[in-house]
Design a protein that fits this description.
52% of the residues lie in helices and 12% in strands. It is built from eight helices and five strands; from the N terminus they run βββββαααααααα.
Length: 164
């Protein structure tokens, strides 16, 4: 698809015309844009608004980021493995070695303190749509609860809220 962006001299065009293959004329050169198949909202039309193009590119970027992002339990197990193999290292030294902050190591490792049912569920559901929901940030409040039953109840409530 090629996006023809006319010279506007300070005026932004309202519509861009799209044609195959996906390329953008940028700084005088054609550059490829990869965002997978055309979204369903753009299947029937040849002229799209800037907003539709932006939304399609955002969705593709988010999908690509999720595909590259590891499962939080896998990441926590990797951090725990590094700590187990190097008992002389502190968590701060492990954080420096892994290129993350000290707080991030503590936060990720706290996921392994959740009940086994939650850890298994998070590990088994590794699809991108689950990874976008089962993040460390969303599971963090569960790690602050002391009772396992409370953690399981809060996890069930989290799953029902997000519709998984």
């Amino acid at each position: 698809m090629r996006v023809d962006v006319p010279r506007t001299y300070g005026f932004r065009p309202r519509f861009w015309r799209l044609s195959l293959p996906y390329q953008i004329l940028l700084k005088g050169r054609l550059q490829n844009v990869e965002f997978g198949p055309l979204p369903s909202c753009l299947q029937d039309i040849r002229t799209v608004t800037q907003r539709q193009l932006r939304d399609a590119l955002r969705a593709a970027r988010k999908e690509k980021e999720l595909a590259a992002k590891p499962n939080i339990v896998v990441e926590a197990m990797r951090y725990a493995d590094v700590l187990a193999r190097n008992p002389e290292l502190s968590r701060t030294q492990v954080a420096e070695a892994l290129g993350v902050s000290r707080i991030r190591v503590f936060q990720v490792l706290s996921i392994l303190g959740l009940p086994n049912a939650i850890v298994r569920y998070t590990l088994d559901n590794d699809a991108p749509e689950y990874r976008s929901v089962l993040t460390e940030r969303r599971l963090r409040p569960l790690t602050q609860l002391t009772e396992k039953a409370d953690q399981l109840a809060a996890f069930r409530q989290l799953l029902s809220e997000v519709g998984v």
